[in-house]
Structure formats: structure tokens, C-alpha cells
Amino acid sequence: MRIFPFLCLLLFSLVVASHQHSRLLGKKKAKVSSVSARLIPRSKDFAFSLYRALASEAPDQNVFFSPMSVFMSLAMLSMGTGSHSKTQIMEGLGLSLQQSQEAELHKGFQHLLQRFDQLRDGFQVSLGSALFTDPAVHIRDNFLSAMKTLYMADTFSTNFGNPEMAKKQINDYVAKQTNGKIVDLIKELQSTNVMVLINYIFFKDKWETPFSDKNTHKEDFHVTPKQSMQVLTMNREDEYLYLVDRGISCTVVRLPYQGNATAVFVLPDEGKMQQVESSLSEWALKNWLKIDTKRRLSLYLPKFSIEGTYHLEKILPKLGIKDVFTSHADLSGMIDHGNIKLSEIMHKSLVEVDETGTVAAAATGAVVTVRSARLKTLQIKFNRPFLFAIVDNMELLFLGKVVRP
């Protein structure tokens, strides 16, 4: 009989650029407009706390991840935990331990998944999960049922006693769900693993108004005040949603996609990146998304492709989520076995931004906007490190920082 000392949870997300966009979206968009944008209980800035933890690990490097994917994976994990393990996850997410709020959390994700599932063909977001479990280990029926009904998770029986076969099964699934964009996600499994939980998010959409590749030229991008690099930079003169947030010293430009999503680009004032990062909050993001004033801009935005791979078992303890990675882990709501802990949470993401669209897409004190369209065209150049986010119906899907395009 095998001994199972570890439970392995892998978290995965992906964003890729779209060069095609189904007209089906335009027909279906109206059907979901009435869905509440506040489906999921607010996490008290979990996304921005996680961003700061990731950015502090490599201050001068690109950052890109999906707060939605991480949040959803931890919410699923919480259903299988007890005692201090559950408390740490819920508190780490900024949520209370009240049963009503916990139930609202899972129900909120169920509604969100149903909304995305209605538009799976042609919609820009695909969000889902899969559970791979060893048949030699009894997974509690309540946990399996909740995964299937609340999170629409695919479930598979997997022989971890043959790690190579198990690895191939899981990697093939991930490759299929991401249209072949991610292959060989899992590099190694052990015969002591008993479960792998995959969560993926796939985004593709075109800009509402695309850039012309005829206006794309090489421009200097100032990685630091003393270091520059030449990057292909897009340019378009148009009316943009624009504001100057003097409270945290940055300029914000919003670019809508053809679907429901919008990209938010945040350019800190010279030398103010750390101030902007420390001021990031849900409240600030909300204020940026409320702005509906346009100004004519000549916008310069670099084409970029960045990716992020994060071992969150090293990051989440900084946010108070640590018991699940130790011998103190209580996963009794998931598996009828006492010698189980979480060995790994891996989060992988990729974004590409070009003339046609993306894949991707604060606090604030006084927000000052320029309202007069009669003013001369203002030139805005994203030619130094900047932040960006992709938001769909007020839900933060992706968050990142571009240091080296």
C-alpha cells in the first residue's frame, strides 16, 4: 500500500493575443448585461496585496498574473480545509468566516462561471478548473460534489503511481484547454502525489479601435533613468478615456475591447512607481473605471509580450496563508487521510499586446480630468515602466507591470 504524504495543487492561468474575434459576441452581449458585476464578495484588496508581494520578489522585473485565477483556486481549496487552515485562507483573502459569506463566495463564482460559459464560443474569457485524483485515495463526496456543481470542474481519475503517465494526462488537458499555447506545464510529479487541481483562464479580444501597424515604429523605452532599449511602439491619435490622478502621481488611459472588457494602463510620474504600487487598491481602481471623460491623445504604447511563473507556496505565507503547506495542514474536508499537506501552488501566465488587441488588459486623493475636447492633442508616451490591468464587468481578471517589453 502506498503512503500519501503530499497533496499537490497546481494553479495555472494563461492570457494570449487574439487575431480573430467572433461576431457571435455582439449578439450575446446584451443577454448578460443584466448580470450583476458584484458577483464575488470583495477581498479587501487581496489582488493588490498579492501584486505587491510578487513585485517585491523582483522589483526590476515584469510582473503578470491573474488575481481571479488565484482567488478562485484558493476559494476551491478552502472548501476542503478545516480549523486553522480554513481560517488562514479566508482571512488571507480578506473575507470573514461567517458561513453566509463563505456560501456567497462560492455561489458568486458559480454565477461567474455560468456567465462565461454562456459565451464560451467567441467570448473573450474562458475560465475553468479540473481535478485529477488518485483512485487509491478516497476524495470526500461533498468536496467532489461542490467542485462539480459550484465550480463546474472537470474530474479525472489519475494513476499517480505512474508519474509519467499522470504528467502526460494533465499536460494534454492543459494544452487542449489553452489551444496549444501551454504545453508541458508540469515538469515533474512524484508517486506520493495524490491530487492535482488545475485552474485556467484564457482571454482573447480585439481593441474596439485597433492601431494601424503603419504607425508602429521603434522608440526608446527607458527601463531605468540610465538604461534604455529600442522597442516596437504603436501610435494612434484618437479620443481616449483619460485622467490624471494627482493623488498618487500617475496618468491613466483606458482602452476598451470589442467585448465587455477594458484595459487600464497606468503611467506613474517620473520616479513615482513605488508610490503608485503602494497606493494600488480596489477603491483606486474603481475610481479609474468610473471616469467617462475623453480627451484627444496621441497615444504611444509599446507592443509587448511578457510571462510570469510563480511558486505561490513561497508567496502566500507572506499573506498569512501558511498552514496548508506544513504538517499542520487540515485538509479533512477534502480527503479522508490525516497525513496530507499541500506541496505546491504554481501560477503561470502569459500576455501579448499588439495592434489588433490583447490578451491582457488606486488612493486617490484628488482626481483631476481634462474635460475640454477643444484643447490641442496631448501626447502620452508609455515609454517607461508602467502598470496595466484587464477588467471585465468590474471583475479584475489580470494585473501586471511592464518593465521590459
Automatic annotation (TrEMBL):
Q: Entry's InterPro entries?
A: Serpin_CS (IPR023795), Serpin_dom (IPR023796), Serpin_fam (IPR000215), Serpin_sf (IPR036186), Serpin_sf_1 (IPR042178), Serpin_sf_2 (IPR042185)
User: Signal peptide: which range, if any?
Assistant: 1-17
Serpin domain mapped to chain residues: 48-405
Keyword annotations: Glycoprotein, Secreted, Signal
The record's principal subcellular location, in a coarse class, is secreted
What Gene3D superfamilies does this protein's entry cite? Alpha-1-antitrypsin, domain 1 (2.30.39.10), Antithrombin, subunit I, domain 2 (3.30.497.10)
Question: One MF term from GO for this chain?
Answer: serine-type endopeptidase inhibitor activity
PROSITE patterns for this protein: SERPIN
Where is this protein localized, as stated in its record?
Secreted
A single GO cellular-component term from the record reads: extracellular space
According to its UniProt record, which protein family does this protein belong to? Belongs to the serpin family.
Which PANTHER family has this protein been placed in?
A: PLASMA SERINE PROTEASE INHIBITOR, SERINE PROTEASE INHIBITOR, SERPIN
Q: What is this protein called?
A: Serpin domain-containing protein
Q: Which organism is it from?
A: Myodes glareolus
